[in-house]
Amino acid sequence: MPKRLDGIWGNIFRHEGAAETEEDLINTLQGVPIFSELGTRELKSILQIAHHRHYEPDEPIVREGQPSAGMYIILQGEVHITRRSPQGLEIDIADMQKGDFFGDVGLLDNAPRTATVTATTECKVLGFFRPELFGLMENDPKLACKVLLKLAQVVAARLRFTDTQLERFAEIANRAAIEDNSR
Questions:
Q1: Can you tell me the distance from the alpha carbon of 34 to that of 106, in angstroms, rounded to the nearest whole number?
Q2: Tens place of pLDDT per residue across the chain (183 aa)
Q3: How many domains does the chain have?
Q4: What CATH code is carried by the domain that includes residue 69?
């Protein structure tokens, strides 16, 4: 089985604990980098526009190729992320659990999803979607700017990580090509 890239997709600021009460939900949101610097009042505003969803084991949460609509935060359970290769092979990308988030780039555009996310256990997630973000931009621009700035920072960090990984792969490929040419 290929090595999974949990480091790219995972939430390094994971908090444990069931997210059932408003206080628990606020603590969970504080563990998500996009919301980590918001105050309690601001987090309560986010909770008012977020959507609770429930998924059964083996139920897809998002499918590769669907238009993006927003992000999901795992409140309970685990998910598995896969994508299809151009040859049609299913590639394991990551496993995520409570406190992790995915789909955040979907807040920025509605480009097709790049992976399928499937619940591996019973899951409760909190969805934060683009239309609600746009509404927040109209109703509370200061809060929306804070969220968008942190979102940009998360995306930038992932891009830097990806660039570093691509450089490593290119270096390995170049070494292999040099070795093949010297034989």
A1: 13
A2: 344 444 444 443 333 444 479 999 999 999 999 999 999 999 999 999 999 999 999 999 999 999 999 999 999 999 999 999 999 999 999 999 999 999 999 998 889 999 999 999 999 999 999 999 999 999 999 999 999 999 999 989 988 988 898 898 888 888 888 888 877
A3: 1
A4: 2.60.120.10
- pTM attached to this predicted model: 0.79
Burial of 21 (C-beta count, 10 Å sphere; 0-12/13-18/19+) = exposed
Instruction: Find tokens 């935060």 and name the residue.
Output: 73
Tally: H helices and E strands in the chain: 5, 8
**Sheet hosting strand 116-119, strand order edge to edge:** 60-62, 116-119, 78-84, 90-97
For 147, the domain range is 6-155
Residue 83 in contact with residue 113, Cβ under 8 Å?
Answer: no
Farthest CA pair distance, the chain = 66
29 in a domain, yes or no?
Answer: yes
Is 167 domain-assigned? no
